[in-house]
Design brief:
heterodimer; A: mainly alpha; ABC transporter involved in vitamin B12 uptake, BtuC; Arc Repressor Mutant, subunit A; 1% strand; B: 264 residues; alpha/beta; Rossmann fold; six-stranded mixed sheet; three-stranded antiparallel sheet; 38% helix; disordered N terminus
Chain lengths: 455, 264
């Protein structure tokens, strides 16, 4: 009780403490913007675009710093330096975007090649310029460096206002253009046929992307920025099939990443530090934010209720168990004309391991489909026998359908029926019976078992 | 609106001098045709004949080299709401996170204009068109959970919601079940009865006679356009699908390559 109260206190501190609240709230706003724009980028399958544009912003950052230096600003006039750097980054990223579309449209370069070309060229130019600035404006150069991986810790209340304003613009634009964004992302050609100004909205989308990147590189840096676009969107997509839920959910994941990135970068060193130690451990905030975001993303990919890998693996395993059960019941049903059926008799027709088969048999026995007789052999209960007849019935119905309706050759239909017998629903069975005129024999002249309710 | 009040003999679509190139290779070459209102029009031709390109070009989705296109005597930008487009089913990402209802409602976006959200009346109208297409029970499903036939029905419900006078449908009969085929045919007949005009890109020659009353035969250039009875004959079909036209296309392509100074 007491501990959790303390925890709440310290968490609240990140919003009230004059030193902590700058980076915390600033980063949260930045992550929110990135996540919202990221949904559009992610659904348009343009994830690499974010990566390219954030790198393309770097030469603008360095030029902004050089201009600030030439105008006589130093580290103390932060407002002006920030403004120049952000304008530089904005223009440079737009230039990168223009280069990409020029390469694609005019020179017919493939999209991925154009993106990589712009990424490496612009980043290379940025690094070259930076090494030059190193000698001309030594003090400001450190700031240029900080844009590589971000430097959230030095953010202050001013950044809250800047990023708050930019985030408001972004959220407003997405809310106003929601319907257009939806239809254009889904099918741009159709949107154009509706007379929606596709070009103008595309331009707006690109400006939003560049804005979000420019907001983000101060705290996360150009190198890691694209993760902040994509990770929250990819995570949110795992949980919902509705665009109007994915947007706020991605935003929420962004906010959480921003907060816990800051929280952990402060708290983890505190926990690890030996009391009284002189050396201070330091965990950079930007990479920490990215790690929180990607952790959320990985967990969602694995454990999301519908689309998660783990849940899907479970579903596959349970279907396999059902299939093997079907096969076991079927093989006993077919062999059981007064014969005592041993484990060996069953195992002969199954490809699964003996242990797995034992588990299947135990489960079937426990649930009343099978019973052991005095000699240890297996026999079907009344219900088990009905199950076996049903599987064989579906198998043979399907074979008749393949031969009579799809013109398949009778020798080759068994394999398909082996698969389909496990998935046919009662509705499809009824349709088949109607279509095939309730056949009595399969293509191999074996009788098709009657349905239980016919007896 | 003005187009609405024009006399009924105005052509639903008139095209002159339409040529489309892609990467300097001609896709359509000097098309000129006129189709009266109230016709069910089949656009027929072999693969790569430019059938889809023709409807994309008249809808302004592909930029033509040249050409003049009029709908009901007006240019498309003056009467955009009178024309509706049904894209090929395979052309979109069916994993996109929207429901069937969201998809159908897109048919109202053009009427609503920028920034405005669908209103209750639009949602009621969407429900009605879904009922017409027999998919009202699926409205809350994600679109990837539909069968091929159901996806096509959703596309048509969306087009119906546009309440247009001229419809362009790109292969609506491809990859669907028999029941859906009947529902679509029934719908098309009802639209024609209301003097609307429907253009259908179609590739199954066996059903052409049963479905359409007007035919556009296409293979890079226009082979024929006219009432079914006078156009659906062996001569035109040979001209559309026969070997001689493959050579025509080849020569045209070569001449284009030469004129821009490239080697083959």
């Amino acid at each position: 009780m007491n501990e959790s109260f303390e925890m709440q206190q310290t968490m609240l501190q990140f919003f009230t403490d004059p030193i902590l609240r700058g980076p915390t709230v600033g980063c949260m706003l930045m992550c929110l913007s990135a996540a919202l724009v990221g949904v559009i980028v992610f659904l348009r399958r343009q994830s690499l675009l974010g990566e390219s544009l954030s790198h393309a912003a770097y030469p603008g950052v360095v030029i902004g710093i050089a201009v600030a230096g030439a105008m006589g600003f130093d580290e103390s006039s932060e407002w002006w330096v920030s403004l120049l750097v952000m304008s530089g980054a904005f223009i440079s990223a737009l230039l990168g975007l223009w280069c990409i579309s020029f390469l694609e449209k005019r020179l017919k370069v493939k999209s991925d090649a154009a993106l990589c070309f712009v990424l490496s060229t612009f980043f290379g130019i940025g690094l070259t310029l930076a090494s030059r600035v190193q000698f001309t404006h030594t003090l400001l150069f450190r700031q240029a460096q900080s844009y590589l991986f971000g430097q959230a810790a030095t953010m202050n209340d001013m950044h809250i206002w800047i990023y708050g304003g930019l985030s408001a613009v972004l959220i407003g634009a997405i809310a106003l253009l929601y319907k257009e964004l939806q239809v254009i992302t889904f099918d741009a050609a159709y949107a154009k046929s509706l007379n929606i100004p596709v070009k103008a909205v595309h331009t707006a989308i690109f400006i939003l992307i560049v804005l979000a990147l420019v907001i983000g590189i101060r705290s996360v840096g150009v190198v890691l920025m694209s993760a902040m676009l994509i990770a929250p969107a990819a995570a949110a997509r795992q949980f919902s099939n509705r665009l109007y839920i994915i947007f706020p959910l991605a935003g929420l994941f962004g906010l959480l990443s921003g907060f816990f990135g800051n929280y952990l970068s402060v708290k983890v060193p505190e926990m690890l530090e030996e009391p009284g130690s002189v050396e201070h451990m330091f965990l950079p905030t930007g990479p920490m934010i990215v790690m929180v975001a990607t952790s959320i993303c990985v967990l969602s990919l694995l454990f999301a209720p519908q689309r998660g890998v783990f849940v899907r693996a479970l579903r596959i395993a349970s279907f396999r168990f059902k299939t093997i059960s079907d096969n076991v019941i079927k093989s006993i049903w077919r062999q059981s004309n007064g014969k005592n059926i041993t484990f060996q008799d069953i195992a002969r027709y199954q490809t699964v391991s003996k242990v797995y088969l034992k588990i299947v048999l135990a489960n079937l026995t426990y649930n009343g489909w099978l019973r052991r007789n005095a000699t240890g052999g297996y026999e079907l209960t009344h219900e088990g026998s009905a199950w076996g007849a049903k599987i064989v019935r579906l198998h043979r119905l399907w074979e008749v359908y393949l031969v009579d309706y799809l013109g398949a050759c009778a020798e080759r239909v068994h394999h398909s029926a082996e698969e389909i017998e496990h998935v046919l629903t009662p509705e499809i069975e009824n349709e088949l019976v109607k279509l095939l005129n309730d056949p009595k024999r399969d293509p191999h002249h074996k009788p098709i078992p009657r349905r239980e309710d016919d007896l | 609106m003005s187009a609405h009040h024009k006399t009924d003999d105005t052509a639903a679509l008139s095209v002159s001098n339409l040529s489309v190139n892609y990467d300097r290779v001609p896709i359509l070459w000097d098309i000129a045709l006129e189709v009266p209102q109230g016709k069910l029009v089949g656009i027929v031709g072999p693969n790569g004949a430019g059938k889809s390109t023709l409807i994309k070009a008249v809808l302004g989705l592909v930029k033509p080299e040249s050409g003049d296109i009029k709908f009901l005597g007006s240019s498309l930008k003056d009467i955009p709401k009178h024309v509706a487009y049904v894209p090929q089913r395979e052309s979109v990402d069916w994993d996109f996170p929207i429901t069937v209802r969201d998809l159908v409602l897109m048919g109202r976006y053009g009427h609503l204009g920028l920034f405005r959200r669908p209103r209750q009346a639009d949602i009621a109208a969407a429900k009605r068109t879904m009922e017409i297409m027999g998919i009202e029970g699926l409205q809350d499903r994600q679109i990837s959970q539909l069968s091929g036939g159901q996806q096509q029905r959703a596309f048509l419900a969306r087009a119906l919601l546009q309440e247009a006078d001229i419809y362009f449908m790109d292969e609506p009969f491809t990859g669907i079940d028999l029941a859906t085929e009947a529902v679509i045919m029934d719908l098309l007949k009802r639209l024609i009865a209301q003097n609307k005009t429907v253009f259908v890109v179609h590739h199954d020659l066996n059903t052409v006679e049963a479905y359409f009353d007007w035919l556009i035969l296409l293979n890079l250039r226009l082979v024929a356009s006219g009432p079914l009875k006078s156009t659906f004959n062996a001569e035109n079909l040979y001209a559309t699908y026969g070997k001689s036209y493959a050579l025509f296309g080849e020569a045209l392509k070569l001449s284009q390559i030469k004129t821009v100074g490239l080697n083959e």
